Amino acid sequence: MVSIKKISKSLKYVGKQLFINNVDCENIIKIHKTPIYCYSLTEIIGNYNNFYKSLEKLNPLICYAVKANFNKEIIKILGKLGSGADVVSKGELKLALDSGISPNKIVFSGVGKTKEEIIYALKKKIFQINVESEEELEEINNLAVNKKTLVNISLRVNPDVDANTHKKITTGRSDDKFGIPISKVVEIFKRKNDYSNLKIDGIAIHIGSQITKIDPFKNAFEKIRKLILRLEKNKIHIKNLDLGGGIGINYFENQVISLKKYSSIIKKEFGRMNLKLIFEPGRSIVGSAGFIISKVIRVKKGLGKNFLILDVGMNDLMRPSLYESYHHIIPMKKLNRKKRNYDIVGPVCESSDIFGSNRDLNEVESGDYLVLCSAGAYGSCMSSNYNCRPLIKEIVVNDSDFFKS
Ligand code: LLP
Q1: Cα–Cα separations (whole angstroms), residue 362 to 327, 333, 341
Q2: What was the pLDDT predicted at 399?
Q3: 283, 304, 322: which is the final residue of a domain?
Q4: Which residues pair with 359 in a beta bridge?
Q5: Which is the closest atom of ligand 1 to the Cα of 287?
Q6: Where does 216-267 show beta strands of DSSP type E?
Q7: What are the residue numbers of the active site?
Q8: HSE-up of 236 (CA within 13 Å, CB side)?
Q9: 73 and 34 part of one domain
Q10: 130 CA → ligand 1 middle, Å
């Protein structure tokens, strides 16, 4: 079996029992029904602190990407650590504010902000809006004129870089819907005074998610550095540089980017530029810290396969069916049984409701519990009521305590 420490620092077997930090999973299911999402606060805090420390010398503003996991306890604890928030809807903006994040640490991203959302952001006086088109600039300016307010704007630049990640989560190629083509940016900055109520003095990029190699970041950052130098030649000095999120995590013994390397590239490209650097990490903060405990409803012998049918379905964790993502699945009780090969599936009426094919596990019986790992990012927040299944509960583990949240 894979070394679970590589998947999450919170998991360990004590004797036969699986623990999340100092909580025996058995104690969770004594109180709560499965399937259930569990998040380790300790691990989230550790991930945030590691990220922050690697960039500390640059005095960055970290804006946690709320879309990765909008559990309120998580946003609250990150806020207490000093994090701001990257939001993409009025709902996320409200939640961030309600969770104690101060408006001057909030950036509003997204390609399709509605009038109502823009007005709300203006009213709340957030730190900045990241704008993705000239049409949006026009609209925000008109609304800001109406409201007699000024607003900080960063232009989200599309650098035309392939992030080399899953095709559904790459966002920085010229044909992707995101951002303003890099070739148009200088010209827009030259006209920035046409927008009376916008303070356009920032640049933002986000080239994709679950990025596991440093080169796409390097290429994108080099292009942005050149763009900033070009702007300077035109006497345009920007103040804020938002470098987005995108750092991948270890789902399947895959390579991950060292934060040291990531930060050294940033220092090299932008360290001497006198810019406020902003980051929008999501997955790298919460991904490894989330788990789903699920019960085996039935073990079904097929013709050539054994199926483990779980009580968790694709509606609870969409990632495998949407992106063919891999999540380690481990037993909640490590028993000395013979190895067997299984396809591990959910109960939803779709063939894509599969959590793992050809997985070797010690023999599993109906009524046993399994734990799906690396489910902290883009798990619960993407779940649905498909098949009229209720949304599943979430608990937060804090060292040897756990509570519903
Ligand atoms: N900033 C912007 C503008 C974004 O669009 C995203 C993610 C982030 C930051 C955070 O990126 P992260 O650090 O989490 O990679 N549902 C997909 C991932 C979608 C990512 C969307 N944008 C998945 O489950 O893999």
Answers
A1: 17, 10, 9
A2: 96
A3: 283
A4: 342
A5: 14
A6: 240-242
A7: 349
A8: 21
A9: no
A10: 15
Confidence of residue 2 (pLDDT cuts 50, 70, 90): low
Percent of the chain scoring above 90 in pLDDT: 94
197 and 257 share a domain? yes
The DSSP secondary structure of 90-143, one letter per residue, reads: HHHHHHHHHTT--GGGEEE--S---HHHHHHHHHHT-SEEEE--HHHHHHHHHH
Do 79 and 176 share a domain, yes or no? yes
pLDDT of residue 1: 56
Domain that holds residue 228: 41-283
Atom of ligand 1 nearest to the CA of 325: 25
Q: Is the CB of 7 under 6 A from ligand 1?
A: no
Ligand 1 centroid vs 209 CA: distance in angstroms? Answer: 5
Q: How many domains does the chain have?
A: 2
| Shortest-distance Cα residue to atom 8 of ligand 1 | 245
Residue type at position 284: S
Does the C-beta of 206 come closer than 6 Å to ligand 1? yes
Ligand 1 site, residue 68, Cβ cutoff 6 A: yes
Of the residues 283, 302, 330, which one is the last residue of a structural domain?
283
Digit-coded pLDDT (tens) for 156-172: 999 999 998 888 888 88
- The response to whether residue 381 sits with its C-beta less than 6 Å from ligand 1 reads no
